[in-house]
Write a structure and sequence with these properties.
- The structure holds two protein chains of two kinds.
- Chain A is α+β, with helices and mostly antiparallel strands.
- Chain A has 27 helices and 19 strands.
- In chain A, strands 2, 3, 4, 5 and 10 form a five-stranded mixed beta sheet that branches. A five-stranded antiparallel beta sheet of chain A has the order 12-11-19-18-17.
- In chain A, helix 4 packs antiparallel against helix 5 and helix 17 packs across helix 20.
- Chain A is elongated and about 150 Å long.
- Chain B is an all-alpha fold.
- Chain B is globular.
- The mean pLDDT of chain B is 85.
- The chains are: A alpha+beta, B mainly alpha.
- Chain B: It is a multi-pass membrane protein.
- Chain B: It is found in: Cell inner membrane; Membrane.
- Chain B: One of its GO terms (biological process) is cell division.
Chain lengths: 685, 372
């Protein structure tokens, strides 16, 4: 201990301490200098080597790029009149992720924009189900005062986005619903398929159905962009630059807008569809399907209630009946069958005596006229729609000549049209039946087919094309897009004067001693030719087809063309459960009248609409109000389902019982007005 | 001392004052920008404060060494009592607090403790007989003098200031010639104790800061936000910066505290690498002058005092710059002479004033020929 202290004393002195201070201060200064160099190096690394990276990050901090949804291209009719256009409006969206208290904020918005309870509940419902980062529309079509009221309160309403924009506008509303479709905010699936930031931009809509969906890319256009300098809290400092959007391209349809609207309105309270085709060009002038939905309200983001109302309606306003409605064609196939007979060598003068029925195998198939038509030749078979005539000769000539002719006429055909889905139905023949059901073709199958019952199912578009082909003797192909290209159709190659024979018979249906004298056009020098059809839905044991429950009534069908001497327009009308062809041909008559004398046609429509309670949009509004009153807001949740595949499955399911019915021998040849057998109690909806 | 320039001016330590004034003016310019292109509220008060404290520092140079030595212990005791008082006021007031309101003056005793701890330890080691330096007598009283204020400041809680006090004290002990093995042993003990202290001694928010520093990208919008935005500001400046008043990070509020702790980032964004090098150079010149003062002074008290003061200033500079460049966790330590804030300006000007006083003592002693 003593030794140690002595040694310590010997070493430590003021001189050694001073020495040690010099050395140690040098060490500290050295460490400090080293740190200084390190800091300089770090500074250089950050600001020179990593400059580009941090510059980008600073820019992305500073600049907020917001996309301006492009103005959607217009959908125009053949005369350049818009079927779908854009309307400038003010709108308010919310971005759920950025909201602090969704319920309170939407409550505040509801007061500012005077939204009712139903609407608020619907918005909250959508906010809850949304993807969070995607905008949910609160209101659109606002006036400037409402827009300003929201804008000034923005600091208290995080996540609320008011903006000037455009909303889709369909001037004729429900009349073009099925044809044009509608637009809506992109769904999660649509975003995943096309993960572009534009799809998340508030106010951007994509086509959801019909033309809007088929021509999405043409209609969409290029988004504009607004570069805005923002603070860390998101406050806008100034606009840096704005790139204007490039509006989408217009799509020209062959549709005649006023005609489309007229036909839709003329269907009235019925459920059905009207197709008009230009015989010379194949232009589809009208593809109306009613009842329909109002694409304007779909495009605003359809409410749960309204959707529920539409999906519950037994007249399926969500289905485009022109393309997705399959019906037994009834007697409208008779001109085609007769043509098949002619082409197979049957003389038009060959007669058969109709006593009101014909025994086929061990069953009697009745003519619609139980009293019989007496001696019937081909023309009379058509204009009187005698079933026995067709039963008789069909058994002689066989099913294959009929099914071949059906296909030549476009029945059962899928046309190259820009539509989401076409149900092309069935042209039955022995081979088809064997393949589908594993059973042999029977004589009564042929008999059923000649009068458009049994397995036959066509859509109204096919019936219109068929009418056009009979009217012209040319292979008319329908088209929906007006591209200015002339149409050139080949001949149907009917022999000799066969076309004239059939056309004359069809003229006699209306202008002669036929079944539809009342379908005569109220225009002096234009004659129309046509063919009626009544398709039975259930057996006569359940309903007589004309009265009773709506869904048991017969379908009414009518095909026609005019002018008779120089066919220009062909038309097909199908009225679901209309109670017979009498429900269809007056509509066809008025629609055709509209083409030649719009004023006259509108007069008759106006008197009808007085009885019906206004235009379709007005009736729908009343219906909706009644529905809301009835259901309250406690409507069970429904999933939106406009997927055509599902309705196709449903249609096939409905078609299924037919075979069983047939094979159970229920095809008893009952007679309707002009129908005989209906094998299937549920073969058409 | 040329004949043209009057002696009172020529004897001022211009080799330090010029860089210092340049730095403060540059700081004023940066604060002008941080204030959105206005002298209020930052730039003007910054310059005013500097002017006031420069006068204070000049007055300090008039105080003789004997008086300073005499006042060392009383000053320490007063500041220590103030720290206790802050604790007491905080305990009664029901919340932690770091300052005392003395009428118009807001006093932060922990700031005062930084120079005072250096002063008192220099006084202690200057009077300690050389022979006692390697014994317990040199470390136990000094340890107590450092430990008491550190604990009081930690209790506030203010980790940054506590570390600054500890750092100043330890540097003086090191310069005083305490055996090297003690520092090595202390260092090893510190490495072992650090994890324990980290998990036991630090509050969760302080622990989080350390984790965030280790991986700032893990939470870029939360705790890593400060570091990330500071690095973006510095990195986006490039060689010559975005130009005066053009920093988007600071002007659009992406950079937190652009006028205090992150003033260097504000500067670097607008002045770039060149501005950064200028600041580093100015600090280098000031600190080099400080070391020159320390080494040229003749007595042990002056040397220890000067060395400690230089170390205290350096500690501020180093920790702040490391923090803004993402090399150290976020601790609330401002950049001397540039950050807006009275307390840090006062502390650093006291350090500068002390160094100027020591310089004057040395010059006087040299002129009177008492020593070479």
């Amino acid at each position: 201990m003593r030794r140690k202290r002595q040694r310590a004393r010997a070493i430590v002195s003021p001189a050694t301490l001073s020495n040690s201070f010099d050395r140690r201060s040098f060490v500290i200064a050295g460490v400090q200098g080293g740190l200084g160099v390190l800091l300089a190096a770090r500074m250089g690394y950050l600001s020179i080597f990593e400059n580009a990276k941090y510059k980008t990050e600073a820019e992305s901090n500073r600049v907020n790029l917001s996309l301006i949804p492009p103005r959607r291209g217009w959908i125009l009719d053949r005369n350049g009149v818009p079927l779908a256009s854009n309307r400038a409006d003010f709108r308010v969206d919310v971005i759920p992720d950025r909201m602090r208290d969704a319920e309170a904020e939407i409550g505040e918005l509801a007061t500012l924009l005077s939204l009712d309870k139903v609407k608020v509940d619907e918005i909250l419902d959508k906010v809850e189900k949304s993807r969070g980062f995607a905008p949910v529309e609160v209101a659109s079509g606002l006036d400037y005062d409402q827009f300003a009221a929201v804008s000034v309160r923005l600091p208290d309403l995080p996540g609320v986005v008011p903006q000037r924009g455009f909303s889709r506008f369909y001037p004729t509303g429900p009349s073009v619903g099925h044809l044009v479709g509608y637009v809506g905010a992109p769904s999660r699936e649509e975003y995943e398929r096309e993960p572009k930031p534009l799809l998340l931009t508030p106010g951007f809509k994509v086509g959801k159905d019909g033309i809007e969906k088929q021509f999405e890319q043409e209609l969409r256009g290029m988004p504009g962009a607004r570069r805005v300098e923002v603070t860390a809290t998101g406050r806008r400092v100034r606009d840096l630059e704005t790139r204007e959007d490039v509006p989408g391209h217009p799509v020209h349809l062959t549709i005649d807008g006023p005609l489309q609207d007229y036909a839709a309105r003329r269907i009235g309270l019925e459920s059905g569809s009207v197709v008009v085709i230009d015989c010379l060009t194949g232009d589809l002038l009208c593809m109306s399907s009613m009842p329909s939905f109002d694409p304007n309200s779909f495009s605003d983001g359809i409410g749960r209630l309204e959707y529920s109302m539409l999906s519950k309606n037994d007249r399926v306003p969500l289905r485009n009946k022109v393309l997705q409605g399959l019906y037994p064609p009834g007697s409208t196939v008779k001109p085609m069958v007769a043509m098949a007979f002619l082409e197979a060598g049957l003389s038009p003068d060959a007669t058969v005596t109709c006593n009101g029925g014909l025994r086929v195998g061990n069953r009697v198939f009745h003519c619609w006229n139980r009293r019989g038509h007496g001696s019937v030749n081909m023309a009379k078979g058509i204009y009187q729609s005698c079933d026995v005539y067709f039963y008789h000769f069909a058994q002689q000539l066989g099913m294959n000549v009929i099914s071949d002719m059906a296909r030549r006429c476009g029945l059962g055909q899928e046309f190259p049209l820009p539509v989401a889905s076409q149900f092309y139905g069935t042209v039955p023949d022995p081979e088809w039946k064997l393949k589908k059901y594993g059973r042999e073709w029977q004589a009564f199958d042929t008999v059923n087919a000649t009068i458009g019952q049994g397995y036959m199912l066509f859509n109204p578009l096919q019936l219109a094309v068929y009418a056009a082909r009979i009217a012209t003797g040319r292979t008319v192909m329908p088209r929906l897009i007006l591209d200015g290209k002339p149409s050139r159709f080949g001949s149907m190659n009917f022999h000799g004067d066969h076309v004239q024979i059939i056309q004359n018979a069809m003229s006699d249906v209306i202008n002669g001693p036929g079944t539809a004298g009342r379908a005569r056009l109220p225009i002096d020098d234009v004659l129309m030719a046509g063919k009626t059809g009544t398709a039975q839905v259930v057996s006569l044991g359940i309903s007589n087809g004309k009265t009773g429950p709506w869904k048991y009534r017969d379908h009414g069908l009518f095909i026609c063309f005019a002018p008779f001497d120089n066919p220009r327009y062909a038309c097909a009308v199908v009225i679901e459960h209309g109670g017979g062809s009498g429900s269809a041909y007056p509509i066809a008559r008025d629609v055709m009248t509209f083409l030649f004398d719009p004023a006259k046609a509108l007069d008759s429509l106006h008197s009808f609409e007085k009885q019906w309670g206004g235009k379709p949009a007005q009736r729908m509004a009343r219906q909706y109000a009644a529905f809301v009153g009835e259901m309250g807001i406690a409507v069970p949740e429904e999933t939106f389902n406009l997927d055509p595949r599902e309705s196709r499955a449903a249609a096939e399911a409905r078609a299924q019982p037919k075979s069983d019915a047939t094979n159970n021998g229920t095809a008893k040849g009952q007679t309707g007005e002009e129908v005989s057998s209906s094998a299937n109690p549920d073969n058409a909806t | 001392m040329s004949g043209i320039i009057p002696a009172p001016i020529s004897r001022q330590p211009w080799q330090m004052l010029i860089p210092l004034i340049a730095l403060v003016c540059f700081g004023g310019a940066v604060l002008y920008s941080a204030g959105g292109g206005h002298v209020q509220p930052y730039a003007l008060s910054h310059l005013v404060r500097f002017s006031v404290f420069l006068v204070v520092a000049s007055v300090m140079t008039l105080v003789s060494k004997d008086v300073v030595q005499l006042l060392a212990y009383p000053a320490y005791i007063v500041v220590l009592l103030l720290l206790v008082a802050v604790e007491a006021v905080g305990a009664i007031g029901g919340g932690s607090q770091r300052w005392i309101n003395l009428g118009p003056l807001v006093l932060q005793p922990s700031e005062l403790m930084k120079p005072v701890i250096v002063l008192v330890l220099a006084r202690f080691y200057a009077s300690l007989p050389s022979g006692m330096v390697p014994t317990w007598r040199s470390i136990v009283p000094a340890g107590a003098m450092i430990g008491m204020p550190m604990l009081l400041v930690l209790a506030q809680p203010d980790l940054g200031t506590a570390l600054a006090i500890g750092f100043g004290g330890v540097v003086v002990m090191f310069l005083a010639g305490l055996p090297l093995r003690w520092f090595i042993g202390g260092g090893i003990a510190g490495i072992i104790a650090a994890p324990v202290a980290f998990f036991v001694g630090l509050k969760p928010y302080q622990q989080k800061r350390v984790f965030t520093f280790l991986d700032p990208e893990s939470d870029p919008l939360g705790d890593g936000y400060h570091i990330t935005q500071s690095k973006i500001a510095i990195g986006s400046g490039g060689l010559s910066g975005k130009g005066f008043n053009n920093g988007s990070q600071s002007h659009l509020n992406y950079l937190p505290e652009p006028h205090t702790d992150f003033v260097f980032a504000t500067m670097a964004e607008e002045w770039g690498f060149i501005g950064g090098m200028f600041v580093l150079l100015m600090f280098f010149l000031i600190l080099r002058w400080g070391w020159k003062v320390a080494l040229s002074s003749q007595d042990r008290f002056s040397r220890l005092l000067a060395g400690g003061m230089v170390a205290t200033i350096f500690f501020y500079v180093a920790i702040n710059l490391m923090m803004v460049m993402g090399l150290a966790p976020v601790v609330g330590i401002p950049l001397p002479f540039m950050s807006h804030g009275g307390s840090s300006m006062m502390t650093n000007m006291i350090c500068i004033g002390t160094l100027m006083a020591i310089n004057r003592w040395t010059v006087k002693a040299g002129r009177s020929g008492l020593s070479t």
